[in-house]
Each structure stands twice: as C-alpha cells, then as structure tokens.
Amino acid sequence: MITTFAKFPQGWTSFSRATEMRFPAGECHIQTDRVMDGETPLYLYLTGTDANDYVTAGMWIDYAHQAGHKVTALIPYLPGARQDRGNPFGAKVYANLINAMEADEVVCFDPHSETMPALVNNLRVVHSDAVIKKVLRKHLAGYAGIICPDAGARERTENTAATLGLPVYYATKHRDFTTGRLSRFECEELPADGRFLVVDDICDGGGTFRGLAEATGLPKERLDLWVSHGVFSGNAAALNEHFGNIFTTDSHPGAVNPSVGANVSPLIHHLLEGTK
C-alpha cells in the first residue's frame, strides 16, 4: 500500500498529484495533473511486500524529481530482510528494488539484521526501543522485566531493557534449518511476581512465541508481547492463549489480522522525526 503526502509549514498534509494505473499490457504507471512547488518536501509511506508497489513508487518518485522535489520513502518493514543469507540472496534482490526507486532518503523501522540496511542507499534506521517506551508508557509500571526470545533478539531486547530501566531474562530455542521446525525452548528462571514483556522484531505464525510462553510456565496474565512487525499469518491467533496483550505497529498489512486482535500503533510520526 502506498500513501503520499507533503510537508507544509502548517504541518503534514495528505497529498497526491498522481494516480496509480496500469497499461493494458500490465506495466505500472501513474497519471498526473499539475505540478506543485518544487520547494515542498514530498513523502511516501510504503507498506507490504508487493513488488508492483515498489515499481509504482519508483514512478511517483521519478515524477516528483522531474518537478524538482526531494522525496523521502518511509518503508518501515524492509521486504526480504529475513532473507539475509543463503542462495538466492533475497535481501540483496529487494534492496536493489528499493535502490532503483532512487528516493533521496529511505527510512525503515527495526530491521531484522544489519545485512539489508547495509545494502540500501540513503537509509536512516529508526530503532524500536524509544518507540516501545512511547507506545507502552501506560503499561510500563507493571513490568518486572524484558524477555529475550532467542540469540537473534539479544541486542534489540538489551537496548529496550536499558531504555525502559528493566532487567533482561534470556530464552533459547533450537531450529532445524532443513525443516524449519522449532524445539527445545528454554527460559531462565523468572521472578515470582510481576509481568514480563517479550520483545522481538517480527511475528509470522507465532511459533517462537508460543513455545517460549510455554517454557516460562507463566499464565497469560503475566506475559505481554511486543513485535515491531506483525505479519500474523497461519496460526498466529493462538498467541492469545499465551499473551494477555499483543502490541505491534502498522508496518505490515498483517498487523490488523482480526483473529489476533493486536494493539496496533501507527508508526508514521515516529518515522518522520528527524526528517529534513
């Protein structure tokens, strides 16, 4: 999904001088009317993973550049970021697609690893710890600690815990990379009282978090879940059996899956902070 808008002295205004269309042969294109003042900074907010959206966004950016504008592309969920190893190297393929858009700046949120951000030109990363503090400020008083679900989430959870002033408790799991099957979930001993927040970047089907919740032995009233990007596919609705609250952002269209019923926070204002 693509949303375009402009920054005016009085604030942010929804804007589009271009309408998406397709030629009969199937190519993406846009129809335009008059050109705005080239001094006006333009922005587009792009969520999802449909390659056609990235081609259309490239058309819009080309149109804006020809009119003298600079464009910031807000792409909170980097498609292909989990394909950061192996053959094919999916992260590089998607990074090339983003680079081909030729945005003057690209802004992403809580990328999966350092691999894909290193491949995207003109990238600014917004990390999750400060956003979590703002979004969950009404809930923070009840938390006794942050739970790190696996080794890949270690830096993210430690940064979040430092920002929130809470201790970190570590969990582990085993993944069979041949089958993708998860097993041997373990979590270090937790305090007898208080609620805990599990923090990670992406939730797809939710198997990691269900296994972790079972390993803690805690009732759902003492466990909450934060994921920066809620894909919420497959059996993700079963997360409600293990977590009292599920928090995410609108970075991916799956976040609003009604069977999960997550608390979804808009990201756009967090991404716009610090824009030129």
Backbone shape:
elongated
- Termini separation (Å)? 24 Å
Strand order of the largest sheet: 11-10-9-12-13-14-15
* The CATH architecture of the largest domain: 3-Layer(aba) Sandwich
What portion of residues is helical? 10-25%
Strand composition percent? 25-35%
Low-confidence stretches: none
CATH fold-level label of the largest domain:
Rossmann fold
Count of separate DSSP helical elements = 6
Question: What would your notes on this structure say?
Answer:
- This protein is α/β, with parallel strands linked by helices and 276 residues long.
- It folds into two domains: 125 residues, Rossmann fold (3-Layer(aba) Sandwich); 138 residues, Rossmann fold (3-Layer(aba) Sandwich), CATH 3.40.50.
- It has six helices and 15 strands.
- Helix 2 links the parallel strand 6 and strand 7.
- Helix 3 packs across helix 4.
- The mean pLDDT is 89.
Show the helix and strand layout.
Elements: E1 2-8, E2 11-14, E3 18-22, E4 28-32, E5 42-46, H1 51-66, E6 71-74, H2 90-100, E7 105-109, E8 123-126, H3 128-135, E9 143-148, H4 154-164, E10 168-175, E11 182-187, E12 195-203, H5 207-216, E13 223-230, E14 245-249, E15 263-265, H6 268-272
Parallel strand pairs: 5-6, 6-7, 7-8, 9-10, 9-12, 12-13, 13-14, 14-15
Antiparallel strand pairs: 1-2, 1-5, 3-4, 10-11
Helix pairs in contact: 3-4
Descriptive key words:
2 domains; 276 residues; Rossmann fold; elongated; alpha/beta; single chain; 6-stranded mixed beta sheet
